[in-house]
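Quick start: read one record
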Amino acid sequence: MTPAEQLKQNSVTLASATQPQDGLTARRSEALDKLRLLPFPEKKQEAWKYTGLNALTAGQLERAAPALDADADIASSIPSLGDCVIVIGNGALTGQLPALPKGLSVTPLSAESINDAPPDTFFGWLNTASLSDGLLLKTEPNVKVPGIVHLVFFNQAQTPCHTTNRLQVELAEGSELTIIEHYLGSGPVLTNALTHVQAGANSRLVHYRLQSESADSLHIGNLQIDQQRDSRVDSSQLMRGNVLRRNDVHVRMLESGAELTMRGVFIARDTSHIDNHINVEHVAPHCHSDQVYKGIAGENGRAVFNGRIHIHQYAKGSDAGLSNNNMLLSNEAEIDSKPELEIYNDDVKCAHGTTIGQMDAGQLFYLRSRGIDEASAKRMLGTGFVNETLHAMQDEAVREWATEWLGEAL
């Protein structure tokens, strides 16, 4: 049996052990059947060309994460970023829900409320097949939900294991919401996260996806966004490297007038690995999308970026842009960038580009000549490289936290 075959068998066994008789039984069973048919991701598959999963042979797919210890200190790890904080520990809601802002409801995910859009990846199906708890956030029509909703997914274990995090966000017509999807924790635990967003007609979502687990953790995440007529989504995704980090983002602009702004910063240091796969589909006409991602890799870190824009046949008047700029901090670091355009309509405006370079020696010399030590000078230049992306974020508290947190990685 090859390593990939063994990992697939472990995945199926893991999901089969999570089949209690409850409201999600049918959904889990359907996903488990699909999981049995799918091949396990390997480097011979184009989507996984630069990312191997040998790290999972340590046993992350052999057992589910245990319930979080009652004495686990979660509160001290959570920065003060939101007005309403909801904590999920090792896949289960911790404590009672806080008082919710006007216009927002939060309920456990049920078979009836799970969106019918199928997961995109093997690990997306594994997420559904092993799902025991999930949250559904719904807004009321034409209501601006006040403040920021801070969802904290805290996953921690001492031995290799797997935890499932599931979030579904439904914005009603004309509503507005700001949420932080924040991943924290430590230890050799694999976080398998799936978030599905439905942006209703004329709704507005400001979304932050912060991945700040410790360096010894692993994370494989899926973010799916479906946009209806005239909806606006502003999504910022910030991450530092760990043993393995893979993010699959799939956006479908299903009705005309939808707007998407997506930005990201990823930093891979030491021996960490980060892989971002972004797919934005312009299904309907007259939609606008803009993607700006910046990556930094140092020491023996490796970063991967694959950005794809897909213009469907009837999506005339589409306006789409994709930019990925990267900086190497050492000769041993590696960054692989692959922007893609797939266009089936001539009446569109599309642009994409990528750059990979090193820290400017002239600028570094200038700072050193002014009495700044080398480490501080490199941190200043690295921070300046990503500042444009950080300053575009709308909420000051998140922006200030992100600037300091990413600065620590430089």
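The radius of gyration is 21 Å.
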